[in-house]
Design brief:
With 369 residues, the chain is an alpha/beta fold. The chain has 18 helices and 11 strands. Helix 2 (10-23) runs parallel beside helix 13 and helix 9 (144-156) crosses helix 14. The longest helix has 17 residues, at 222-238. It is globular, with a radius of gyration of 21 Å. The model has no long low-confidence stretch (mean pLDDT 92).
């Protein structure tokens, strides 16, 4: 824990908070893009420690939360088919589809298995040559290299019973969608450090210039987040809009070249529908033509899907930073982690789950100022 403790030092945190308070002169709204950052902020009470001029809102950086409902329903339909072993990370099993979730499919006899890596699903396919094994491949750029490697290995080994249901989303187009929205109130962004460790941060520069918003690459420990906020406030107060890297121990400008080459080979860019937000052009990855035979969406014929979202869930507004989770009328009553109405209450990175787990039940604690 030594190296983690270095980034949780309360005296250094107080120093950074003092510097932020000494710098800020007006109200600023900044968005942390990543759900992991949201949970760190709420768990450590960072938003309560900041001066009142600094408001944090929570973005669409939870891949479980933004996976579109029709993809969830398609996953449920595939997992229900005989002869299929459906593999997924555990946080997808409770995500509600139109009328059920993967736990329900499992209870009804579907062979649904929790895995910790797409390579686990690859090995299950090797061990079960008479079964079709499907891995639910979701996530931002962070999880994409491992998913790409699993598909690449399946092709290399001639594994014909392995496929992937892909719903990868990309961060820069999401930031652009937020900035271009007529309801946008975000003035700066804390970019997700793990995404940038893969992809680098060069693609953020055109966004910072076009929309005049500072974008600071930020880590996940309390001192990482406070340093990201400090750098962001300095830019805002000075009228600058640049991309800065506050996470140099993990992030380089060009990211991971080997991972990027693998991603460029296995995936191609596509338009993607985001749950609670809508269609964002060029915001997703799908398997490229070279690997299309491993695409579960093509391998399995699924028809008759009619999606139905909850009429009272306001997770879409949460994902766009328009409201805080505890401003939704269903929060903590009709919607809880055990009986979620939306994915933001299910995922380990969901903003609603963070507010619920850390006791943020009153609107006054999280309402916009």
């Amino acid at each position: 824990m030594k190296y983690l403790d270095e980034f949780r030092d309360p005296e250094l945190a107080r120093t950074l908070l003092d510097q932020i308070e000494a710098t800020v002169t007006r109200h600023w709204v900044m968005m942390e893009v990543c759900g992991g950052q949201t949970h760190s902020i709420i768990r450590n009470g960072i938003d309560k420690l900041l001066p009142p001029e600094v408001e944090l809102v929570h973005g669409p950086g939870c891949p479980v939360c933004v996976t579109p409902l029709d993809t969830i329903d398609k996953a449920l339909a595939i997992a229900s088919q005989p002869g299929v072993i459906f593999c997924s990370f555990g946080d997808m099993l409770r995500v509600p589809g139109s009328d059920r979730d993967l736990f329900r499919v499992k209870s009804e006899g579907g062979d649904v298995r929790v895995v910790y890596s797409p390579l686990d699903a690859f090995r299950i396919a090797q061990q079960n040559p008479d079964r079709q094994v499907v891995f639910f491949g979701i996530g931002f750029e962070t999880t994409a290299p491992a998913n790409a490697m699993a598909v690449h290995m399946a092709k290399t080994h001639g594994l014909t019973n392995f496929s992937m249901l892909v719903s990868h989303v990309l961060v820069p187009p999401a930031i652009e969608a937020i900035c271009s929205s007529p309801t946008n109130r975000v003035q700066a962004f804390l970019a997700a450090g793990h995404v940038c460790s893969v992809m680098g941060y060069a693609d953020y520069a055109p966004l910072a210039e076009k929309y005049h918003v500072p974008i600071v690459v930020t880590g996940f420990e309390p001192l990482d987040i406070l340093e990201g906020i400090r750098k962001t406030v300095l830019q805002l107060e000075a009228g600058r809009a640049e991309v800065e890297n506050a996470y140099p121990r993990a992030v380089q400008r060009d990211g991971n070249p080997d991972a990027r080459r693998m991603l460029a080979d296995v995936f191609s860019v596509t338009d993607r529908n985001w749950r609670g937000i809508g269609m964002i052009p060029g915001s997703g990855w799908e398997l490229s033509e070279k690997y299309r035979d491993f695409d579960a969406a093509y391998r399995f014929t699924v028809t008759g899907i009619v999606t139905k979202e909850s009429e009272i869930c306001r997770s879409g507004e949460v994902l766009q930073g328009l409201i805080k989770p505890n401003q939704c009328e269903a929060f903590g009553t009709l919607c809880t982690p055990r009986k979620p109405l939306g994915a933001t209450m299910v995922s380990t990175e969901g903003a609603c789950a963070a507010y619920y787990n850390y006791g943020r039940f009153t609107e006054s604690e999280g309402a916009p100022r």
